[in-house]
Amino acid sequence: MPRTNLNDILIFMAVVDAGSFIAGGQAMGLSRSAAGKAVIRLEERLGARLLNRTTRTLNLTDEGRVFYERGLQILASVDAAEASVAGSGTPQGVLRLSVPDTFGRLAVLPLLEEYLRAWPDIQVEISFTDGFADVVEEGFDLAIRIGPTASDSRLASHVIATYRTRLCASPSYLAEHGEPRAIDDLVAHDCLIFTSRNQRHAWRFRGKGNSLITAQGRSRLRLDSAEAIRDAALAGLGIALLPDFLVADDLAAGRLRQVLPDLETDDTKIVTLYPDRRPLEPRVRRFIDLMVEELERRGEARRRDASSL
């Protein structure tokens, strides 16, 4: 079977990126008519419609979306192959990130000045969300997640840091509702639970023999943002279980108080997820390295502060 003209694939992707045949053709140095004919040739070759066309808009079909995502992977591999042959491995292009809202603003944004200054050919696009974006379908190079992540054969994952989690509540909440003295007491308290896609994230603690214990508590308020849970705890709406990077300042200032401090909580893992393809693009690899270095510095600073108390 004859091989598809690679230039037609590039034209198709340019049309998708630009959102029109005119702009996509111009990006490739072609007329609107030539760009349209290239896409038609590609569709005929594949035996599938890639674009739904109206007089005003272009939209990818399901087949077109799959083909476009595969095209992105091919172009990324070509870029990586060129870089490896050239021996440079210099980061370039657009780094697309999906990061948790609060963690992204606290830990990711401060890194960008150093990253962009070091690699002037890089552009960065970031989606701040505590929801779970589909990394492959939405075209992200890298996602950072906090806590458990669902298994996905399309993705590679790597734990880059761990944080202790703490049960905490405001002094006003504890004054009104009393302070729990044991894990079973949580059943009588309002627990501020993280939820996403209608899935609640249960609180688990370590018991004897390193066994896991699931806390049973009321869950009248459920939120999909760690920062919103922190704000709700500060407002006296319940007890929260949050990583210490988010509540350390509040605990130190007395705005929150730790609850059941002797209860051993599970560590919160910071995980990177990226499409499982080889080699990893330099722009992604360098950002991960920078993130690991920054989190290690923060960890050392926390340990120094703790040892000085």
Topology record:
Elements: H1 6-18, H2 21-27, H3 32-46, E1 51-53, E2 58-60, H4 62-86, E3 93-99, H5 101-118, E4 122-128, E5 142-146, E6 155-163, E7 165-169, H6 171-177, E8 191-196, E9 199-200, E10 204-206, E11 212-214, E12 222-223, H7 226-234, E13 239-243, H8 244-253, E14 257-258, E15 264-265, E16 268-275, H9 282-308
Parallel strand pairs: 3-4, 3-5, 8-12, 8-13
Antiparallel strand pairs: 1-2, 5-16, 6-16, 7-13, 7-14, 8-9, 10-11, 10-15
Q: What can you tell me about this protein's structure?
A:
The chain is of the alpha/beta class and 309 residues long. It folds into three domains: 6-84, Arc Repressor Mutant, subunit A; 90-160 and 270-308, 3-Layer(aba) Sandwich (D-Maltodextrin-Binding Protein, domain 2); 165-266, D-Maltodextrin-Binding Protein, domain 2. It is built from nine helices and 16 strands. It has helices at 6-18, 21-27, 32-46, 62-86, 101-118, 171-177, 226-234, 244-253, 282-308; strands at 51-53, 58-60, 93-99, 122-128, 142-146, 155-163, 165-169, 191-196, 199-200, 204-206, 212-214, 222-223, 239-243, 257-258, 264-265, 268-275. Strands 7, 8, 9, 12, 13 and 14 form a six-stranded mixed sheet that branches. Strand 3 (93-99), helix 5 and strand 4 (122-128) form a beta-alpha-beta unit. Helix 1 packs across helix 2 (21-27) and helix 2 packs across helix 3 (32-46). The longest helix has 27 residues, at 282-308. The relative contact order is 0.14. The model has no long low-confidence stretch (mean pLDDT 82).
